[in-house]
Amino acid sequence: MINEYISVSFIYLLCLFAVFSNAQELSDPEKNFEYLWKEFDRRYALFLPKRIDWNLLYRVYRPKVTPQTSDDELFEIMSKMLTRLNDLHVRLDSKNPPRSFRSGKSHEAVLQQFGTVENFIRYFKERPIDKKYVKTELHERHENIFAYTWLTDDIGYFHFSKFSGVEKSSEIVDEIVDYFKNAKGLIIDVRRNGGGDDKVGKVIADRFADEKRLYMTIQAKSGPGHGDFAEPVRWYVEPDGPIQFTNPIILLTDFTSGSAAENFALAMRVLPHATIVGDFTAGCFADAEADKLPNGWYFSLSINMFKDQNGICWEGIGVPPDLRIVNTKEDVDNCRDRVLEFAVELINSGARGGQKKKENGSNS
């Protein structure tokens, strides 16, 4: 009986030890750092195109983490390491206390163009185009995702704030293309567009295609090695819908054009009648996946690799404009859109996508 009691007590103590050990493990800063580094090591898809030595970053930042490292210090160390990835899809968040980090180049660009983050937020909440540029009523559709109007008697303007709902978008875009069918030129604006569903971007781009053209490939990770990728999936832009608009198109982009908006830009840039005007896009093309550290902090990482039709990965750089023009802080303060004004001038000058050398493979 005594032996049985001792055995039960011993098992009980082992269980308690396991519980407390596990609790200690979950709060151990070294274990959380190791977990984050290892998950990125086996799952992050962009070490090679970005030429990042992940092992070197481990040697730099791992010694900074000790059993005495506080949560604030750990969050800062992890953030500094992830900053090196220059990837807006890489995030780190904690709830208690609330902290949020996002890798990428956007913060500096915000301050340069808008002066303060508050000005930038106000810019995003405003209508996509100042009323002084609009000749007729600004039409808004699909929960105000789509906005379109006439800038002159024969130049149309079409803005969309995100890519959502394939079937609904297809139906509405067909109506918008029909609305502009007699336009001399069309300005498509994907500034202030954070992305969404790439399939919606293809649906829209297809309405402006003259023939089938390769514009993008996507490769998913297939193993833990930095170079382990599945075979590429090829994406084509091709004529679809009752009407295709193939008159001159100016696509407006800047650093607020992210993710699916950038992949849409990849589709539009292979069209011979389209010209990209503005600034480099955000440089975050890939799909992101979220996960959680043992201590409860959330993180996200890019899990596949996007390339253009020529096999170039623009991650961390962004789609380059054919003609680079950037609104200054003074322009923003004075409600002037220098980029839009130039686009109108370009169409009036008779430009037909001839502002760039096309190196695009058509068909297959």
Automatic annotation (TrEMBL):
Residues of the Tail specific protease domain: 126-326
Coiled coil location: none
Listed GO biological process terms: proteolysis
Pfam families (UniProt xref): Peptidase_S41, Tricorn_C1
GO molecular function, one term: serine-type peptidase activity
Xref: InterPro entries: ClpP/crotonase-like_dom_sf (IPR029045), Tail-specific_protease (IPR005151), Tricorn_C1 (IPR028204)
Protein name: Tail specific protease domain-containing protein
